[in-house]
Amino acid sequence: MPEPNAQNADLSALSIDRSRKADRPRRWPKWLHLLWLLLPVVVFFAYQYTLKEVAPAKSVKVDTVRRLTGSDAAADLVATGYVVAQIKAAVSSKATGRLVMLNFEEGDKVTVGQVIAKLENDDFIANLELYRAYLKQYRADSLAAALNYNRQVKLLAAGHTTDEVVEQATADYDRATANVEAGLAQVKAAEVAVENTIIRAPFDGTVLTKDADVGEMVAPLAASASSRGAVVTIADMSSLEVEADVSESNIQKVKVDQPCEIVLDAYPSMKYSGYVKKIVPTADRSRATVMVKVAFYDKDDRVLPEMSARVNFMPVEGAQTTPEPEQVLVINNDAVAMRDGRPVVFRLDNGYARLTEVSLGRKLGGVTEVLSGLPSGTSVILNPPGGLTDGDKVEISE
């Protein structure tokens, strides 16, 4: 086979064709790079949104922003408290024994000295009869000693006896007289012991609670778990007053004889007139409050001990007071929270909590005046949890 001739070879195939551009790596569009940069952000917010949507709703309680009118809005101060009987006693016995008679139940009226209950007292009565018998014996001995003394005195005057016999008769008479006095004291002590088993009413009142039943042991100090300390608790219903706790910062607004309006929570439509009877001269350091006792001008049978009440402290007649609006917008105190040192509330908005800043005014008992930030009728969350934030899903608890 003939070898190729190098001179005749076509060297054009080895030349570089500069007319064709070299293949370059394909470049992505700029918008696609931007998309890749935004994708993590979109995924993050989508995850947060999805997490919020599928997260369980927080259970909350709600209340409504409302308006106060009339005396509720005109009050200088509002405080809450309880109706308390100023004359009240847990009636018990001074003796220990088994309860055998109970004459009254809750709601019954009693008069001073009336027998409420009686303890088993056969042993005390037996002792009383024994001491009475001793007293009869002592009196008989005293009579005999007195007769002997008189006889000896006459015999001494007639010269038929001696001074020693008269002196002995005198000593016997004195001893018999002392025995009579001791017997009287013993009978009195036995009568007191019997009386201690009879429980009487210390004053006119109404039985509030029955603390023991027939057959139970009653002891003055209830020394054991099986014994009762009191039989009944009675109170003088005419001594009912409202004991209200007023904040130390507002106590300067309260004066003795200041007119008040009392509203019982059980009867919110009823308003009782009253006045400040006493400002207790001490404060409760744990709650920073001062107790104020408010007496009723008029009350009826619906006013009962331990009822919760609201007291509106009205302006003192003749005092310089700024005119109050006819209506005051108020919110429950439990709905107010502090965020960054500012008062806020959480509105209920279609199942979500919405943080709202508010401007607050006077505290009127369990509510606070709202100056701005909320319209009337808004549903607000009570006692919002510390971790509650704007936009959290919530549900109303029953």
List keywords for this structure.
single chain, 398 residues, alpha+beta, conserved putative lor/sdh protein from methanococcus maripaludis s2 fold, Elongation Factor Tu (Ef-tu), domain 3, OB fold (Dihydrolipoamide Acetyltransferase, E2P), six-stranded antiparallel beta barrel, five-stranded mixed beta sheet
Tally of separate domains: 4
Distance between the termini: 107 Å
The CATH architecture category of the largest domain equals Beta Barrel
Strand content: 25-35%
Identify the CATH homologous superfamily of the largest domain.
Answer: Efflux pump adaptor protein, beta barrel domain
Question: Can you give the helix content as a percent range?
Answer: 25-40%
Poorly predicted runs are 318-325
Write down the overall mean pLDDT: 83
